[in-house]
Design a protein that fits this description.
Blueprint: H1 2-21, E1 24-29, H2 44-56, E2 60-65, H3 68-76, E3 82-87, E4 96-111, H4 119-125, E5 129-132, H5 136-143, E6 151-154, H6 160-166, E7 171-175, H7 176-186, E8 193-194, E9 199-208, H8 213-228, H9 231-240
Parallel strand pairs: 1-2, 1-3, 5-6, 5-7
Antiparallel strand pairs: 3-9, 4-7, 4-8, 4-9
Helix pairs in contact: 2-8, 2-9
Length: 243
């Protein structure tokens, strides 16, 4: 009888382990090259890192692309959902379970006439600034006292460069890697000025506030392993070398 119970227990344990390994985790994100890329086989710095970490942790992954604000709300109010690339800000701190920092990005103003190096310059010049709706950049400017009327807040897509070149906005506040990537991909020959960094943010893999340790533990461990074996650096270099 003891042997029968042992066999049954082993079968159940195997079935449970198999079910866990086959579980698909939803990763909410947006198209924000080079951090996350929607089209093609390459999924950007955060996309490649997290997909590999999920695989190493024994799960499968499904990327879900949504408008950024909706994606954040969906994950914050959901359960066991992952999100990238999410800057860890005081406003967001209580809304998510923070798993691991992937990459630290600088926030800079991009312009086509003369560099903007500070928020004080934006205020004094009453410059209009394009920011992603619901982004860390929008929160930063509002918190720093920039008049809301100076902000052009919208879903980031493919019109940012055209808005700068046409003069509809004076500056675009964004992460430096994404700005340079988009400018390069656009093929425009006009010079873009990148101002001095006004902030830097640790950009994380996060999970819903209600998130199982069976997810956060293995994924956090997998990301740590990738950092130690040099995998994360190789992925970063793949996208940013030569930028």
């Amino acid at each position: 009888m003891k042997k029968l119970f042992l066999i049954v227990g082993m079968v159940l344990a195997f079935a449970s382990a198999r079910e866990a390994s086959a579980r698909t985790l939803e990763i909410y994100t947006l198209d924000a090259p080079p951090l996350v890329i929607e089209q093609g086989d390459n999924h950007g710095i955060h996309g490649d890192v997290l997909l590999e970490a999920v695989k190493r942790a024994g799960f499968e992954a499904k990327l879900v692309f949504l408008p950024w604000r909706r994606g954040q709300d969906t994950v914050a109010n959901g359960e066991d959902m992952l999100i990238i690339p999410l800057a860890r800000t005081p406003e967001r701190e209580p809304l998510y379970t923070w798993i691991s920092n992937i990459y630290t990005v600088e926030r800079t103003f991009a312009t086509v006439d003369a560099p903007l190096d500070s928020i004080d310059q934006v205020k004094s010049k009453k410059a209009t600034v394009l920011v992603g709706q619901g982004s860390a950049q929008e929160q930063l400017l509002l918190k720093s006292g920039v008049d809301k009327a100076q902000l052009q807040s919208q879903v980031i897509g493919k019109s940012e460069i055209e808005m700068l070149l046409s003069g509809r906005v004076n500056a675009w506040l964004n992460s430096t890697p994404e700005t340079l990537w988009k400018w390069k991909q656009s093929g425009h020959k006009e010079k873009v000025f990148i101002g001095k960094a006004i902030a830097s943010d640790d950009v994380y893999v996060a999970c819903s506030k209600k998130c199982s340790t069976d997810i956060t533990g293995p994924i956090g461990k997998a990301i740590d392993g990738m950092r130690q074996d040099g995998s994360i650096k190789k992925i970063i270099d793949k996208y940013l070398a030569g930028e």
